[in-house]
Amino acid sequence: MQSQATIPPEYTLLERLLAAGKTVSTAESCTGGLIAKRITDVPGSSGIFPGGAVTYTNEIKMQLLGVKADSIAKHSEVSHTVAAEMARGARVRFGSDYALSTTGYAGPGGGTAEDPVGTVYIGLSSADGERTVRLCCPPTDTREHIREAAASCALQMLLEALS
Question: What is the pTM of this model?
């Protein structure tokens, strides 16, 4: 039997959401569906995961998730504001109890002086509102590592909210 420390967070998340009768959806940009993949890799995930969306362009973020054009213009698509609006939009669109979102610069290009490559904003939406965190990976990290770190951080963020 695996120790609690070695159990991937998506397994614990499935257990807690099933026990609570709750669901989670996703809205992903830079992670490209990795959070949804990790959740659906777990047997029984259909009981807690109604769906997710990969919203890579600003137009799709606005059309599918209801992200405001003003938010993108004022804060950029890589921001706390847009991560919160993406998460809220996914929760409403998929009718879930919780939603996770990611928007960031996984590299190797992109980034700004304020938000360099390796910056990812992660959103969590619930009936209580939205929370966001800013993840800062070294810009020298690989694209794959940044995306994996963001997915793990998002899953952990929801686990902490369920505790």
Answer: 0.94
